[in-house]
Amino acid sequence: MSPIRLHASNPNLYADVEFQNPPSHVTDALEFASDYTKLQEEFCLLAQKVHSLLKSAYNTIAIEKEKMKQMVSEQDYGIQNTQIARLRQSLSQALNHNSELRSRLNRIHSESVISDQVVSVNIIASPDEVSNEGRLSMSESVSEFFDAQEVLLSASSSENEASDDESYISDVSDNISEDNTSVADNVSRQILNGELLGGVFRTGRRTSLPAPSPDTSNINLWNILRNNIGKDLSKVSMPVELNEPLNTLQHLCEELEYSELLDKAAETDDPHERMALIAAFAVSGYAATYYRAGSKPFNPVLGETYECIREDKGFRFFSEQVSHHPPISACHCESKNFVFWQDVRWKNKFWGKSMEILPFGTVNVTLPKYGDCYVWNKVTTCIHNILSGRRWIEHYGEITIRNTKNSVSTCKMTFIKGNYWSSNVNEIHGVVMDQEGKVVHRLFGKWHDALYCGDAPAAKCIWRPGSMPTNYELYYGFTRFAIELNDLDPVMKEFLPKTDARFRPDQRLLEEGNVDAASAEKQRIEELQRTRRKYLEDNHIDYTPKYFRKVVDTHNKETWVSNDTYWELRKDPGFSKVELPTLW
Question: Any stretches that span the bilayer, and where are they (predicted)?
């Protein structure tokens, strides 16, 4: 076969070239590629459908979310509108109630005839008001205050009460000297003219303490108390920083802060109303403790005394520590309208987080005008969070007040036990009953706030504590009355026995803010007391109190009463000539 010539423009193939079918594996590959492409197309279509569905679902959810937001917003707006409407309604009711109260007060004020009332007040003038000679004359007159023939007490009647929310006020008049009569007349004139109303009434006593209470944050009470759980803490020596510059004898006097209630009871003919006022007085003695959970009073040493003459309140008071183990404090107070006495013995128990104070003994009040003699017990006191947190105090238990001269009227007061956050914290309620047990008056309130007599909302406020001094938190939580208790007037020093608590150096140094010196003096005085006690025991000598004697009452219980020698010794020959023990 001759070779065939190829032309560039017309390519020629060999005539004898035979074209054959492609191999089978190539055909299979082509078919597989076609199927793969088809699957890809189907997957893409399916993916597009899924994407479309997801996008639609997302849009639907977004729309529903916006609808829900709008609904919630509208609902909140509706709730807010409802709350606003309720608040407006409450405000309107409060304003109406306030307007009604103002109207009642204006009516009471207009019906009161103040100009017909005789207001005569004796005060101890401050140094800028009288000379030293005048002050001496006044002090001498004060020492003879209760030798006067007559003491006029002004007592507001139930028809002329200025306000149910104010404490009763008892002003005392006695012409003790010509020097201060003009001062008293001037004060009376100022009161009638309204010049002193709403201001600070000047009694001649101090209105603040010389130094604030010390910092106690660095004292670890747990180290002190952990070995004394369940024991009587009156036998445990505490750091002086935990004390307040008052002792238990002065605390007994503090219970007479609202003695005006007894004055009013002494002028109330209805026996059940008298009982309600006695109950208010029994409750009022706890009010000052509300702000005092952070400190404790000094323990009096055996033979220590305290006296308090309050011309403005019309009473004279004295107390004595008659026993050391067990600790027993006795007091006696008298005025024209009443006689008050009690002896208190107590036990302190530490339970880990709290401390209980368990009192024993009775409180006694007589009203000579009616021949009444009221007797009642005291309730348990508990101080919570004693190791950590904010300390708070509560009183719980039942007080039963009875008249030992007759059974015409009795009273039961219950102090509710609660907790710091409960709505009934400090709540009290009670009843005054006749001799058949029928309820005559209902009493309710809170021991730190107020006591009401009657049924709400028409109940009448029969007692409310006075306002607290400025910055009282920095000064042991003392009330105005408590601030005055340890005040030592230079002129009055010569009339006091050297055993009076106001001469106690550790207590005085703490009041002045000298904590280190107070601590040293406290240890020295406690050691002196231990030495005296050991001497009495070694020589088998029974201690005899100077101004009180032990008697057995009608219920065969021992109690301490005045032996009627304190004021006689004070007057003649005077304590400067009486042999007294050296206590500090």
Answer: none
Peptide bond into 239 cis (omega under 30): no
The answer to whether residues 253 and 182 belong to one domain is no
Which of 192, 213, 242 is the C-terminal boundary of a domain?
192
Query: What angle do the packed helices 132-143 and 178-192 form, to 10 degrees?
Result: 90
Indicate if 368 and 433 belong to the same structural domain. yes
Helix (H) or strand (E) holding 320: strand 315-323
Range list of H helices, 246-389: 248-254, 260-265, 271-284
| Whole-number Å distance between alpha carbons of 94 and 97 | 5
Provide the token pair at 285: 């003695």
pLDDT at 78: 67
> What is the pLDDT at residue 158?
37
Q: Are 462 and 413 in contact (CB under 8 A)?
A: no
pLDDT score for 134: 39
For residue 511, the enclosing domain spans 224-577
Say if 265 falls within a structural domain.
yes
In degrees, rounded to 5, the angle at the alpha carbon of residue 113 between the alpha carbons of residues 164 and 185 is 100
Closest residue by Cα to residue 188 from 247, 278, 242, 115: 115
Q: Is residue 20 part of a domain?
A: no
Quick check: pTM over 0.70? no
Specify whether 356 is located in the same domain as 232: yes
Positive or negative: CA dihedral 73, 78, 84, 90 = negative
Are residues 394 and 347 part of one domain?
A: yes
pLDDT, position 176 = 31
Give the residue among 359, 372, 262, 265 at the shortest CA–CA distance from 317: 262
Q: How many residues are present in the chain?
A: 584
Give the Cα separation of 415 and 423 in Å (integer).
14
- The whole-number mean pLDDT for each consecutive block of 10 residues of the chain, a chain of 584 residues, reads 47 49 62 79 86 87 85 71 81 79 67 38 37 38 36 35 37 36 39 37 79 86 70 73 95 97 97 97 96 91 96 97 92 98 88 85 96 96 84 94 95 89 86 95 96 92 95 95 94 92 97 95 94 92 94 85 95 86 92
Count of the separate structural domains present in the chain: 2
Domain membership of residue 44 (yes or no) is: no
Same domain (yes/no): 156, 279: no
